[in-house]
Specification:
single chain, about 190 residues, alpha+beta, disordered N terminus
C-alpha cells in the first residue's frame, strides 16, 4: 500500500484484529459511543460505515446476538492511531464480559514492522490473566519447535511465577491503567 505524505506526517499501514466479548444487554449505541475516539480518528460517523482498505476484511462489526465486537480492519494511519485505539478500548472496558486481546500490526515502509497487543477487560485482574495466557500460548508455540513439552512446562512455570509475583497479591498490576487497558509491544515479521 502506498503511503501519502501529509505535511510532515507519513501515513503507516495498520491492521487491527481481535474479538472483544461484551456483556449481555450492551447496545450498539453504547459500543459506538465507546469507540468514538477511534471512529473520529478514521473519519467515520458510525460502525456501519467502517470499511477496511481490503475487501476481504469485514471492518469493525458489533454482533449483538453473539455479544461480540469483531475487528478485522486495515487502513493508513498516522502516529497517534495507537493512542486512539487505546482510548476507545478504555471506554469499551465497562461493557466487556471478560478480558480480550486486540492486536495492532504496523507496516512501515522501511520494513520495520511493529506489533502491539492491547488488552481490554472488566477488571485489572482479568486483564492480568489474559496477558499471562497470551504470553504462555505465544511462548509455548515458539518453544514447541525446539523443546519437549516437559521443557516448555518449565518455562511456563517460571512465567506463571513471574505473573504471580507482579500481581503482588493485591489483585492489581502496574502495567494496567486505571481504565483497565494495557499494551505490550514487540517486533514481528509477517
Amino acid at each position: 500500500m502506498q503511503r501519502e505524505r501529509e505535511g510532515n506526517t507519513v501515513r503507516i499501514e495498520v491492521h487491527v484484529h481481535g474479538e472483544v466479548a461484551l456483556r449481555a444487554g450492551v447496545t450498539a449505541a453504547q459500543v459506538e459511543a465507546a469507540l468514538r475516539p477511534l471512529l473520529e480518528y478514521i473519519d467515520e460517523d458510525n460502525l456501519a460505515d467502517v470499511r477496511s482498505v481490503y475487501e476481504d476484511e469485514p471492518g469493525i462489526l458489533y454482533e449483538a446476538r453473539e455479544h461480540l465486537l469483531s475487528i478485522c480492519w486495515s487502513g493508513d494511519v498516522g502516529r497517534k492511531f495507537g493512542e486512539k485505539v487505546q482510548a476507545a478500548l478504555a471506554e469499551l472496558a465497562p461493557y466487556t464480559e471478560r478480558a480480550s486481546g486486540v492486536s495492532l500490526s504496523f507496516y512501515h515502509d522501511d520494513g520495520q514492522d511493529e506489533f502491539s497487543m492491547l488488552f481490554v477487560g472488566p477488571t485489572p485482574e482479568s486483564i492480568h490473566e489474559a496477558e499471562r495466557l497470551y504470553l504462555v500460548e505465544e511462548m509455548s508455540r515458539l518453544l514447541g519447535r525446539h523443546f519437549t513439552e516437559a521443557e516448555i512446562g518449565e518455562v511456563v512455570s517460571l512465567v506463571n511465577q513471574l505473573f504471580t509475583r507482579s500481581r503482588g497479591g493485591s489483585g492489581t498490576t502496574s502495567t494496567t491503567t486505571s481504565a483497565h487497558l494495557s499494551a505490550s509491544a514487540r517486533k514481528r515479521l509477517h
